[in-house]
Amino acid sequence: MLQVRIHTVHPQIGLKTTPGRLEMQSELSHISMESQKPLLQIENSRVELTIDQSQCFADAGLLSFSRFLAHYAQKGQQSVQECIARYAREGYELAAIEKGGKIENIVGSTMNKDFSFVVDAVPKQPPQISWNVSGVHYTYQPLQYSTSANPAELNINYQASQLEIYMEQTGSVDIDFTGGIFDKTA
């Protein structure tokens, strides 16, 4: 009996891949910033207040040194003149004793002085008040800054992936006849 034996080998395809590669390199960017501080200057002059109480003190009898000297110098001069006049008058009265002048009259005239008292409000006028106010002056300088940037260079290296297709095993069919005689020429 004739037997046919068929033996097949499947073909095999091989794939060889090389993965793609992307390399990126960069340096750090450089950014610089310079600034000046803001400036605020405030100038405020003092308020000048003047209170002149010299007339109030004068009304109360309290004088400044220069007014004190002037007042009592005048009062002293007036007292000296009154005293000279009184001594001259008393001298004339003593010289006229033979005409009936009496010493009692001279002494009695100095003793009989009338004194008066006056109640008065002090001060009679308010003090003189003046002031000088100057404003606030300010100077403002805003923040000033400058920037500079040096961008980094970017180096890119790209290698594409590769695919290689090859036949790892070719396909084949083997046919064998066993058993009887087979004429291949027929």
Q: What layout of secondary structure does this protein have?
A:
Blueprint: E1 3-9, E2 12-18, E3 21-26, E4 30-36, E5 39-44, E6 48-52, H1 54-59, H2 65-95, H3 103-111, E7 128-132, E8 136-141, E9 144-150, E10 154-159, E11 162-169, E12 172-178
- Average pLDDT, all residues: 82
What does the oligomeric state look like here? single chain
Q: What is the count of helical runs?
A: 3
Distance between the termini: 18 Å
Secondary structure class reads alpha+beta
Q: Proportion of β residues?
A: 35-45%
Succession of helices and strands:
EEEEEEHHHEEEEEE
The radius of gyration over CA amounts to 68 Å
Fraction of residues in helix: 10-25%
SS elements, strand count: 12
Q: What order do the strands of the largest sheet run in, or round the barrel if closed?
A: 1-12
Per the principal axes of the C-alpha atoms, what is the gross shape? rod-shaped
Largest sheet: 2 strands, antiparallel
Unreliable stretches covering 5 or more consecutive residues: none
Question: How does this model look, in words?
Answer:
By secondary structure, the protein is α+β, with helices and mostly antiparallel strands. The chain is built from 3 helices and 12 strands, in the order ββββββαααββββββ. It has helices at 54-59, 65-95, 103-111; strands spanning 3-9, 12-18, 21-26, 30-36, 39-44, 48-52, 128-132, 136-141, 144-150, 154-159, 162-169, 172-178. The strands form 6 sheets. A two-stranded antiparallel ribbon has the order 1-12. It has a two-stranded antiparallel sheet with strand order 2-11. The mean pLDDT is 82.
